Amino acid sequence: MHVLRPLFVFLAFVGIVLMARFLYVPADFGIHERGYMYGWHRKSNEEEWKQVRVKYQGMEYCSGCHPDKNKALRESPHRIIQCENCHGPAIEHPSEPLKLSIDRSRELCLRCHTYLPYPTSNRSNIKGIDPERHNPGIECFMCHNPHKPGPGR
Amino acid sequence: MTRREFLKNTLRLTGALAMAGSAIEILKPDSVFSARPSDVRWVFLVDTYKCVGCGMCVRACKLENEVPYDANVTRTWVERYVLTKDGRLLADSPKGARDGFISPRIDLGMGEYREIRPEEIEKAFFVPKLCNQCENPPCVQVCPVGATYQASDGVVLVDRKWCIGCGYCIMACPYGVRFFHPVYKVAEKCNFCYHRINKGLKPACVLACPFDARRIGNIKDPDDPVTKVITKERVSVLKDEYGTKPQVYYIGLSKEVR
After folding, report:
1. Of A88, A83, A78, whose CA–CA distance to A126 is shortest?
2. What's the gap in Å between the CA of A151 and the closest CA on chain B?
3. Which residues in chain A touch residue B102, judged by CB atoms under 8 angstroms apart?
4. Domain limits of chain A?
5. What ranges make up the beta strands (E) of chain B?
């Protein structure tokens, strides 16, 4: 009998491991649509990713409450820029956050308007300025309307 | 040992092994080898001619996906390539271009910069990068615990509860799109804004791009405008030779781009 004892110990060990595995691994963990090589996962995680909160709402969302800004922007060369690119994600504004941020920095405008000598890039189709020469130290919005740039403020 | 004992023990052992074996899931060959088709396969189209390097996509991505804004990690980034007439290649992507490219000097890293005179430049352009959601994702193959996987629509996801943070997937990705999430301490990557595309919204980077340089589409829908470009026009992918079958297609990719 004593020669079999290690075997029983081994069997008990296997049993415990299987039990632990049964309790720990969720029921939906297994092979899903993409097969064993790529689809071995916990199915409910897909749902978890879908539940992430949406933060960027898009321009249409703002138009009802800020019609003046919306109209001005639509008629300007900046019509292609989303409001939220300059004001941050709306999330559930105006309930949360109450106000969106207003970025008045020169750096915001310079993302597109710093002159870069790249004729092979679309960058050269945007009017560029040299930030060190074009009214340094003064914020751009003082002279240009960000919602309706062009001749005259 | 008598013959009788030997036979008895053999029988016991086989029984015990069979019992243990039955507790382990039995894999059906079709579930192991075949993938079940889905009617959606997300793909991405980047037009490098249109990109101006404003970095609005990077900013929007970080804020939408709660990637710590000041940490030097990002799910998508934009690279600048400058080729000089004497054959030098300079490339940079300061902070992943989170703040765009607001100076013509090239960021060499470690606080060093290189000035390039306009007349030296042969060509210069911007290349946005993001996860390729490969058809054969090497990052998924190396995961030892099944924490990263491909959904039926082609998007590669990371299960934050299951990931043990071993970092194999980060090493395995030939495109360098994976990184450690500084808060959750697990592998992190672009997932085409899975929460947005499943609600019929565009990914945050696509919404934020004013120049239409970034687009998303369903390659299984023949009427999708992105599908039409990919099937009818001249597009290319990054590191095709790796056999990963990347699904981010580029218009105007130059051979210098790696």
Report:
1. A78
2. 22
3. 107, 110-111, 114, 131
4. 53-102, 104-153
5. 42-47, 77-84, 89-92, 106-109, 112-114, 121-129, 148-150, 156-158, 179-180, 187-188, 214-218, 248-251
B79: tokens are: 């690279």
Rounded distance, CA B66 to CA B49, Å?
29
C-alpha A98, offset from chain centre: 20
Query: What does the alpha-carbon distance between residue A124 and residue A118 come to, in Å, rounded to a whole number?
Result: 6
- Identity at B91, one-letter amino acid code: A
Alpha-carbon Rg for chain B in angstroms? 24
* b/e per residue B92-106 (b: at least 16 CB within 10 A): bbbbbbbbbbbebeb
Q: Which residues of A touch B151 (CB under 8 A)?
A: 33-34, 46
State the complex-level ipTM.
0.91
pLDDT average per 10 residues of sequence, chain A (153 residues): 89 94 92 93 97 96 95 95 97 94 96 96 96 96 94 60
Secondary structure of residue B30 in the 3-state scheme: helix
Chain-chain contact of B121 with A118 (C-beta, under 8 angstroms): yes
Q: How far apart are CA A17 and CA A32, in angstroms?
A: 24
